[in-house]
């Protein structure tokens, strides 16, 4: 019994090319067992010939050469509850789901109307109704040198952006969201490290900034549904991210009040861009297509919502980000640290 237990605990999954196992120290388990190991995502059927089940001793994989790893398929099935053939209705495909050995299983969720919740990237409790009553015209007048530097840095970035995208607002929105989602993650990460270094609480600011990053990424996931990036736009995103991530990282280390002020102004520009987007939709220059399903669920929009409704809630989000970042900068200007002021968590 003990030996069996020890052997079971040493079972490992290995995913690699079959060429590495040409010495026949391992063999692929049957098709039906193998498919189940990696299904639940796109790996499923396409890699079935590359998946191996190996029984190795506690000493590790290096000793495989001396270990007989061939097992009867039936024995594998009996010993491990790996495969569940339960269908997964997402995307309408009959995909198989993993029942994890580790007890990690995604719960089946339902929407309020009883239909299945189909998004894995966010859950019903993360959805919200945007506050459209927020003041879109609020502006922080730059007074100090750093404020002016932040303001004119953002203004100068607008010129090449206008030139590149012109009136292609869908594409512009998608591309700008790839940049907008960076500052929250960088700021949150740096505050996280600071909290660890100094053995002190963050006042909720780590979470608030990560929430902002996630919210911006959801904007991107939404606009991806209405505008597909071309190859050179993908290349541009990679280049811009490489530069912007590092520049913002350094900027935040040197002066968080400048970094937050700059994001505040970026958000003011985003509000302007989305207002222009709405004008183009109203004029009919951009087709007011039905809202993507992901947007309807994320912002709890009515089922018959359109792209215009989506742009309005995204613009409201940007106004909230503007407030949070100018607020954070103001805290620093008052000579305080962010942790000394409660963070605006869940501020939408
Ligand atoms: Fe955004
Ligand atoms: Fe934003």
Describe this structure in words.
- The structure is a single chain.
- This protein is 51% helix and 6% strand.
- With 348 residues, it is mainly α.
- Helix 5 runs parallel beside helix 7 and helix 5 packs antiparallel against helix 8.
- The N and C termini lie far apart (57 Å).
- The structure holds fe (ii) ion (2 copies).
- One fe (ii) ion binds at residues 177, 180, 216, 219, 270, 314, 318.
Summarize the structure.
This protein is mainly alpha-helical.
Inertia-based shape: globular
Identify the strand order in the major beta sheet: 1-2
The biggest beta sheet reads:
2 strands, antiparallel
Number of strands: 4
Distance between the termini: 57 Å
Mean pLDDT: 78
Helix and strand sequence: HEHEHEEHHHHHHH
Query: Which compounds are bound in this model?
Result: fe (ii) ion
Q: Helicity range of the residues?
A: 40-55%
* Helix segment tally: 10
Overall radius of gyration: 26 Å
Please identify the structural class as seen in this structure: mainly alpha
Give the low-confidence spans.
1-69, 79-92
Percent of residues in beta strands: 5-15%
Protein name: Ubiquinol oxidase
């Amino acid at each position: 019994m003990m030996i069996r237990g020890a052997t079971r605990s040493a079972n490992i999954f290995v995913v690699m090319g079959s060429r590495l196992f040409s010495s026949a120290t391992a063999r692929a388990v049957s098709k039906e067992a193998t498919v189940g190991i990696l299904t639940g995502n796109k790996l499923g059927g396409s890699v079935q010939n590359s998946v191996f089940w190996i029984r190795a001793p506690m000493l590790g994989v290096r000793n495989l050469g001396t270990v007989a790893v061939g097992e009867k398929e039936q024995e594998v099935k009996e010993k491990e509850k790996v495969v569940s053939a339960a269908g997964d209705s997402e995307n309408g495909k009959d995909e198989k789901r993993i029942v994890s050995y580790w007890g990690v299983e995604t719960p089946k969720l339902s929407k309020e109307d009883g239909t299945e919740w189909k998004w894995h990237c966010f859950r019903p409790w993360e959805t919200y109704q945007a506050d459209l009553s927020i003041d879109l015209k609020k502006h922080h007048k730059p007074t100090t040198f750093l404020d002016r530097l932040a303001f004119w840095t953002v203004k100068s970035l607008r010129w090449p952006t206008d030139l590149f995208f012109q009136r292609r607002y869908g594409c512009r929105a998608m591309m700008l969201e790839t940049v907008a989602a960076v500052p929250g993650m960088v700021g949150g990460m740096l505050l996280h490290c600071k909290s660890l270094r100094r053995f002190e609480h963050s006042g909720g600011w780590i979470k608030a900034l990560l929430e902002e990053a996630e919210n911006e990424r959801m904007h991107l996931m939404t606009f991806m549904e209405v505008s597909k990036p071309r190859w050179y736009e993908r290349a541009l995103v990679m280049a811009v991210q490489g530069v912007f991530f590092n520049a913002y990282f350094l900027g935040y280390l040197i002066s968080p009040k400048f970094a937050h002020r700059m994001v505040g102004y970026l958000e003011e520009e985003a509000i302007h861009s989305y207002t222009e987007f709405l004008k183009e939709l109203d004029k009919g220059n951009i087709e007011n297509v039905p809202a993507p399903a992901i947007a309807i669920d994320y912002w709890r929009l009515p089922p018959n919502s359109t792209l215009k409704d989506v742009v309005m809630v995204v613009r409201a989000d940007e106004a909230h980000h503007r407030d949070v970042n100018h607020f954070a900068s103001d805290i620093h200007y008052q000579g305080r640290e962010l942790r000394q002021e409660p963070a605006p968590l869940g501020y939408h």
